[in-house]
Amino acid sequence: MDINHPNASPLSEQEQMVFEHFQKRLESMVSSHGLTEGDVKELVRELRSHPLISSQLWQVAGTELTRLLPDQRFDFEWD
Q: Ramachandran region of residue 10, left (φ > 0), alpha (ψ -120 to 50) or beta?
């Protein structure tokens, strides 16, 4: 299911920095030992607790996970 956010704006400069940090950690995890369920939960927990989290940042982070690990399903539960 695709959800369209027509009023979504590009990431702010600060959000972009948060995303780049997320991206570097994600790529490091994938290249060193693969990505475990615990890794995904840790990354989600970090993003969720960040004061700059937005729906746009969530979407970009999810897209990055899908790009690095195609054909994988990810659970972004809040627990």
A: beta
